Amino acid sequence: MMATLYQERKMAIPEMHPEHQDYWDAAAEGRLLIKYCKSCEQYHYYPRNICIFCMSDETVWKEATGTGIIYTFSIMRRAKPAPYAIAYVELDEGPKMMTNIVDCDLDSLEIGQKVKLVFKQTGDADNLGPYVPCFTPV
Amino acid sequence: MSIKGRAFIAGAYEHPLRLIEIQSVAAIHAECAKGALKDAGLTLKDVDGYFCASDAPGGALSMVDYLGLNVRHIDSTETGGSSYIVHISHAAQAIAAGKCNVALITMGGRPRAEGKSGVKPKKVTPNIPEVPFEQPYAPTAVNEYAMVAKLHMHKYGTTSEQLAWVKVAASYHAQYNPNARLKDVVTVGDVLTSPMISDPLHLLDCCVVSDGGGAIVVVNPEIAKKLDRPLIQISGAGESPQGPMGGKMDMTYTAAVHSGKAAFKEAGLTPDDIKYASIYDSFTITVIMQLEDLGFCEKGEGGKFVAEGNLISGKGKLPVNTDGGGLSNNHPTSRGGITKLIEAVRQLRGEAHPEVQVEDCDVALVNGIGGGLGSRHCSATLIMERV
């Protein structure tokens, strides 16, 4: 099979919600923050103020190690201008998160493959948005 | 309180067109409302409950006024394409509680006439909590379901050939439906050689995009018995929403595990009792997973079950989607729940096409998966009996 090399694409600029400022600030520095509940001692993603598992408001940001495995994925072949890989990555901390797999031959991806964080900037030259966490094979 | 025996389906109507350039969305709803009421032998003045989802332009307030209804109960529950199956259950509950006696459910839309498709990124409204953490990655209807299919293949060894059998069965049935969007019978090979949209889903693993609509009338037992229609009793229902659960999700099963269990319990029936099933076929994988999760086969055996030809009427163990389903007949405005209900009513009445009519069809199940199976979805199960 011919390779399907990742190509940069314009990613939609996310809507900013007030309780996520730390998340986006860290993303701009190349760090992924995920929420940890001090009460039930569990991580969750995407981030909430109040814990999804126990309703405690004692949630705090913790920096993810930035590695995980591909839980599942699909390559959108019909996308314009180029195919892209959507995926759920299971972080080493436990939660699975929606993401894109980037900077690789998309045809080489497999479920269970080890991946690491890489950040991509949303928007385009005329309208730059925040960086968002993506992953690439280790 | 159980809804079993407390409400009956008296009227059903499916818009005959699959491309509607001559009517507005509201006009489609009105034509379907009229068709279902006429089918029941009722009129506009008999309706005292109205149900619609987000396809109804302006919502229940605009539609009640547009249709000229005088109702004392409304419900706009929105669960994507399964909404109308939920509405039947809610209508039965409202009727059982005395909140209304004649409930009208309408749906309709014209994505083809308006140039919409399932491969474009989802349109989003502000303030939805997950959107900032998903939208940049360009989730679509197809690639979300494709991720679910990929995982099912990885865990259970399900193959593209097995997925294709769901489409083969749908196309076999659609050849007998003069209104079907796609009437050609296709082979496994046709599915596998159709263009890859989002792997592992090929073009022919995806439902059609169609304009259209439908309506259902649900009535209390006293009214049902006075009407000159077969008695189609609502026997059990279940609804279950499911999402990524803070990142703890297991995408190898659907919420049909829960909605199905509730519906079978309420009806006092088991999967072995079901003579015909309408199973939501947004994509081929959706059907395979529902069959497993409703208990028609073991978990992980759905691919094998469909590849034995079991969905084909007159040939297999469980005739499914004998109108051609969303894969070949109709998936009006990408919300297929209403057509699933309508074909089940036809089967129970003995009004399906003779080539696909299930013999002595007295118990039917309808299951819908609305929303995105790869993110947030709602499974709705309904069990009906001809009594």
Average pLDDT score of chain B? 97
Query: Structurally, how many domains make up the residues of chain A?
Result: 1
CATH class categorisation of chain B: Alpha Beta
Q: What helical percentage do the residues of chain A reach?
A: under 10%
Biggest sheet record of chain B: 9 strands, mixed
Order of helices and strands of chain B: EHEHEHEHHHEEEHEHEHHHHEE
The third-level CATH topology of chain A is OB fold (Dihydrolipoamide Acetyltransferase, E2P)
The geometry of chain B reads as: globular
Rg of chain B: 19 Å
Number of strands of chain B: 11
CATH superfamily assignment of chain B?
A: Thiolase/Chalcone synthase
Strands side by side in the biggest sheet of chain A: 6-5-4-7-8
Which structural class do you get from the secondary structure elements of chain A? mainly beta
What does this structure look like?
The complex is a heterodimer of chains A (138) and B (387). Chain A is mainly beta and 138 residues long. Chain A has one helix at 21-28, and strands at residues 33-37, 43-44, 59-63, 67-76, 84-91, 96-101, 114-124, 127-137. In chain A, 41% of the residues are buried. Chain B has a single domain, classed as 3-Layer(aba) Sandwich (Peroxisomal Thiolase, Chain A, domain 1), CATH 3.40.47. Chain B is globular, with a radius of gyration of 19 Å.
Topology:
The complex is a heterodimer of chains A (138) and B (387).
Chain A: H1 21-28, E1 33-37, E2 43-44, E3 59-63, E4 67-76, E5 84-91, E6 96-101, E7 114-124, E8 127-137
Antiparallel strand pairs in A: 1-2, 1-3, 4-5, 4-7, 5-6, 7-8
Chain B: E1 8-14, H1 25-40, E2 49-51, H2 59-67, E3 73-75, H3 83-96, E4 102-109, H4 141-156, H5 160-174, H6 188-193, E5 196-198, E6 201-202, E7 212-219, H7 221-226, E8 232-242, H8 256-267, E9 276-279, H9 284-294, H10 302-307, H11 325-329, H12 337-349, E10 363-371, E11 377-386
Parallel strand pairs in B: 2-3, 2-4, 9-10
Antiparallel strand pairs in B: 1-7, 1-8, 4-7, 5-6, 8-11, 10-11
Helix pairs in contact in B: 5-9
